[in-house]
Amino acid sequence: MARIFCVANQKGGVGKTTTCVNLAAALQQAGQRTLLVDLDPQGNATMGSGVDKRALARTVYHLLVGLAGLDEVSATSPSGGYDVLPANRDLAGAEVELVDLARREHRLKDALAASATQYDFVLIDCPPSLSMLTLNGLCAAEGVIIPMQCEYYALEGLSDLVNTIKKVHANLNRDLKIIGLLRVMFDPRMTLQQQVSAQLESHFGDKVFRAIVPRNVRLAEAPSHGMPGVVFDKSAKGAQAYMAFAEEMIGRMKKL
Ligand code: ADP
Ligand code: MG
User: Fold this and answer.
1) Cβ distance 171 to 33 under 8 Å?
2) What is the atom index within ligand 1 of the atom nearest the CA of 18?
3) Could you identify the atom of ligand 1 that is nearest to the CA of residue 215?
């Protein structure tokens, strides 16, 4: 049975997509059959996987509103080897259309049910908002991976997301829990980042992943080549960190 996780944080530019794409590729490399679901109309995870968002007849939008099935939407990342449910601007319309549909928060969950035995991992890349799309992600998943930068306001920003997760847990998805916080774009030379990182550890204990992703330019360059960083330059420090993170996830799954 597929283990389904959301990568979420209502802030933009915190490394959600980079985490999703690299974790998907690293899991696939580790022999785990992986599906990446792009739930962001920006389609960055789609492009970063080497799938051209401008050339798609059907996207995850069609899946969510019931105009297409999983097999009609699914593509394979040529560089990463994992499967992708791609997105583009079409998905922006789903936000409004979903409101009038039956089981509006559960559309993604229902659509993914058909693929439960086809994958070991499903990773959902959420948009930077607590919207109907993000709700669909949270309702489809057993847990949330939260990438975050170790900045001054990091903990404060987290409380909105944690409250949303609690509400979804209470009302819509009893399985949902926080799997862990992933420190990304980390710069160990900055004292403030070290302090925030230590704070996170004392506050959240083993909910903080041991793997730490450093700020690494190779990770930022990879999407323009349509490749996950772990494929583009697997010897780079950022790629190594995501491979360690994938191993950590596989290890944790055995215990959950
Ligand atoms: P989000 O999906 O949360 O909006 P992205 O994953 O798109 O965030 O990351 C925002 C920007 O930061 C992108 O340009 C990305 O390439 C860059 N980036 C992400 N992680 C790293 C990292 N570890 N080191 C350097 N740049 C990074
Ligand atoms: Mg993104």
Assistant:
1) no
2) 6
3) 24
DSSP code of residue 201: H
Q: Which residues surround ligand 2, an ion (CB under 5 A)?
A: 16-17, 44
- Residue that the structure tokens 């995870």 belong to: 45
Q: Is 184 touching ligand 1 by the criterion CB < 6 Å?
A: yes
Give the Å distance between the CA of 175 and the centre of ligand 2: 24
CA distances from 62 to 38, 49, 51 (A): 13, 20, 17
Write out the chain's pLDDT in tens, 256 residues. Answer: 899 999 999 999 999 999 999 999 999 999 999 999 999 999 999 999 999 999 999 999 999 999 999 999 999 999 999 999 999 999 999 989 999 999 999 999 999 998 889 999 999 999 998 899 999 999 999 999 999 999 988 788 888 899 999 999 999 999 999 999 999 999 999 999 999 999 999 989 999 999 999 999 999 999 999 999 999 999 999 999 999 999 999 999 888 7
Structural domains of the chain, ranges and CATH numbers in brackets: 3-255 (3.40.50.300)
The rounded Å distance from CA 43 to ligand 2 centre is 8
Model pTM greater than 0.90? yes
Task: State the ligand closest to the CA atom of 245.
Answer: 1
**Alpha-carbon gap, residue 82 to 71, rounded angstroms:** 14
Q: How many angstroms does the Cα of residue 167 sit away from the middle of ligand 1? A: 28
